[in-house]
Specification:
By secondary structure, this protein is α+β, with helices and mostly antiparallel strands. The protein folds into two domains: 2-83 and 270-326, no CATH class; 130-267, no CATH class. Helices cover 58% and strands 12% of the residues. It has helices at residues 2-18, 85-105, 130-162, 167-267, 303-314, 318-326; strands at 47-48, 51-52, 54-61, 74-75, 80-82, 271-272, 277-288, 291-300. Helix 1 (2-18) runs parallel beside helix 6, helix 2 (85-105) runs antiparallel to helix 4 and helix 3 runs antiparallel to helix 4 (167-267). The longest helix is centred in the middle third of the chain and has 101 residues, at 167-267. It is rod-shaped, with a radius of gyration of 67 Å. It starts with a helix and ends with a helix. The relative contact order is 0.19.
């Protein structure tokens, strides 16, 4: 097309020079022929490589600050048009807090200790009062001997009393009575020893009963302690199992929240320009909740587009260019 227009201009120049007369000093200007301007369509080039020249790019914004372009700006293929940086930053902070919470929740819960088995309580030895019984037997024998001595001494004194009483007999009786007093005293001492031995036996038996009572009481205390430990372990273990369930529930909940945040982060991709071009305009279409829906109109650029632009500017100026050629100003 460009070559065709240049050829028309050259033919017009040649015809102008041939129409001039050499005899007249004044230059006669031939009238400029009217050149019909070809009709131009509004869209010189509807498509470039089969792709529409004008593209509308939809963008979802949190705020107008998410835009990285403005109308009239030239952009390159791959250049970022919009990026929801503030929302990404907020989601990343939320994800970090959730990960910290997950780490805290995932700490191992200490397992309750099982109740310790108490050692078997030793049995009491068999009751043995042989020592006390031996002392009693000895005391009984001593008492019996002392009693026999006292009895014989009394018989002797009685025999002396039946005799004629002279000075000698009276002295003998008094002497034997003195010995009887000593024998009786020893008898009483043996009797006291016997009573003491019996008391020792009774005390030993009472001590044995007290030991048996203490032993039985200790067994009951140990049994109660085992029951208390077992009950405490069951309660602690039930609480431990419940804590494990709650921990798993909280972990699942936090993991779900993290997955949701990651899904949102995955959807927050930066919108980039698919081609080189110029941003003609940006329209804010609507608002959906907290999101703004915007559309950027991109005019693609290419070599064919540049030539079409040059031709669209050149054709309307064809009459002016021909006139300048006729006056020799071109």
């Amino acid at each position: 097309m460009r070559r065709f227009l240049i050829a028309i201009a050259l033919s017009l120049i040649t015809s102008c020079h041939l129409s001039q007369t050499p005899s007249d000093n004044s230059v006669k200007i031939s009238p400029i022929p009217e050149i019909s301007t070809p009709e131009l369509t509004e869209n010189v080039e509807e498509k470039i490589d089969g792709i529409p020249r004008t593209l509308k790019i939809n963008m979802t914004l949190t705020s107008p600050d998410d835009l990285r372009i403005k109308p009239g700006e030239l952009v390159k293929a791959g250049q970022t048009l919009s990026d929801r940086v503030s929302e990404k930053r907020s989601l990343l902070e939320k994800k970090k807090l959730l990960e910290i919470s997950l780490e805290q929740v995932s700490r191992k819960i200490p397992e309750p200790l099982k109740p310790l088995s108490l050692p078997n309580m030793p049995k009491l030895p068999e009751a043995n009062f042989s020592k006390e019984e031996a002392v009693i037997k000895k005391a009984e024998m001593s008492l019996f001997e002392k009693g026999e001595i006292v009895k014989k001494q009394k018989e002797l004194i009685a025999a002396l009393d039946s005799l004629e009483k002279g000075d000698i007999e009276r002295d003998a009786i008094m002497h034997e009575q003195g010995k009887l007093a000593i024998f009786e005293l020893k008898y009483l001492q043996s009797k006291v020893n016997l009573e003491s031995a019996l008391a020792s036996l009774n005390s030993a038996k009472a001590d044995r009963k007290y030991e048996e009572y203490k032993h039985s009481l200790e067994q009951q205390k140990r049994l109660l302690e085992l029951q208390r430990q077992e009950l405490s372990y069951q309660q602690t273990n039930s609480k431990y199992i419940e804590n494990l369930r709650q921990q798993e529930f909280r972990k699942a909940s936090i993991n779900t929240q993290i997955a949701t945040v990651e899904e949102k982060l995955g959807s927050l991709v930066a919108v980039t320009s698919p081609f080189d071009g110029k941003i003609r305009k940006i329209n804010y279409e609507s608002q959906n909740n907290n999101y703004i829906l915007a559309t950027a109109t991109l005019d693609r650029t290419s070599r064919g587009t540049a030539e079409a632009t040059t031709m669209s500017e050149f054709v309307p100026r064809m009459p002016e260019i021909v006139a300048q050629i006729s006056y020799g100003k071109f």
